[in-house]
Amino acid sequence: MMSLRWHFGPTLYTVRLFARTMIDVCLLAFLIEGLYLSERFISILKLVIDKPVGLENVLPLLASAAPEVHLALPLAILIATYRVILLSRENREFVVLASGGQSILPLLQFASAVGLSAMTFSLLVSGEVAPRAKFAFRANVDAIQYEALRGGSTPGQFLYFPNHTIYVWPTERGSSHPIFVKQILDDNSNRIVNARNIEIEERSSQNMLIIGMFGVAMNDFPNDGERWLAIGAKPDTPGEVSCKGCGLQLQHLKSSSMVRTLDVTKLLPLDPRGATVDEWTTPELLGWMRPPGDRSANPAGAEAMRRLARALLCLLAPFVSWLTLTFTTRRSQAFALPTACAAVMIADIGFSQLVTRLSGVGTTALWSILLGTVCAVLALIVTQIVVRQHLLIFPALGRS
Length: 400
Hints:
Layout: H1 10-49, H2 58-65, H3 72-90, H4 93-99, H5 105-151, E1 158-160, E2 164-168, E3 179-184, E4 189-202, E5 208-222, E6 241-244, E7 252-263, H6 264-267, H7 282-285, H8 300-326, H9 333-357, H10 363-387, H11 390-393
Antiparallel strand pairs: 1-2, 2-3, 3-4, 4-5, 5-7, 6-7
Helix pairs in contact: 1-2, 1-3, 1-5, 2-5, 3-5, 3-8, 3-9, 5-8, 8-9, 8-10
């Protein structure tokens, strides 16, 4: 009867090393995302706290903001790989491999597997998840503003809309609700509306509000930077309307009461997905799929190359970890990993500047330049790892 036994070998060891690294990558990525979202939480909470909506609306906004951390994955790959291989070296696992006659090739294969997996995941997140998350964030903010407008905002708060700024004056409970509205009519004129009281008379449909305003003063004036003072509303007889300078352009109007029908969808227009190239998926940027809307795709190539540069940074990260390990001793342990993280951040800035400055040469040429640069850097790192491979084998933290 034959029994199956697990034998120690480079292939099995590489698989175990890969699994341990991926677990560490996931934990570190969650940690980095948590730190980022904890900072974003305050700004996101401000969007909700003063609105008549539940605090549970914060969770979708946080989830939509999570993919914005572009450096989370490269840094997680770098730190996780470094921690795993440092522990393996200090436990003399690499000494066992070297004693069995194994070369550094299995370890480079491990680094390649980690890098390719991270690059694929980065392309998926930046190319599909992040663009749709950006639109979801904008749509959720629009929905919160819509509910705030229909439900009534807290007095003493400014409400900002694309062409309107609204302020409801704080008053005692049960009294009137004075309101101030600034409306941008066009590039050359603004409209200021003051009312002593405002009430929602009827909700005629899902998106239509019938609003009653009392003691209204409306003033139109040029938007040329001059100082203008709107005339406050004065008590008039019911229904009386006075108008000065009424012609092609209204300058001043007073009324004791006025009823307006408000289309909320016009006050809060939500552009479809694709208002900016950040909301385009990578296949749409590269022309493989029809882009959203009828917009020019001139900056599309540069944005696609930025996403590719971040993915290639994930490919370089595990090799940077191996190179950092060769410089890690008792004296350099404190600053070896921080220096490597700083190098990854500098590389991210450098790739971004390279794409920005060469965006006019065309997508194919930019792709060739970017890929050639990454291949040159990768070749230099691998060469240094091979030259310094003796420093990967023996533990270095137990001696000076």
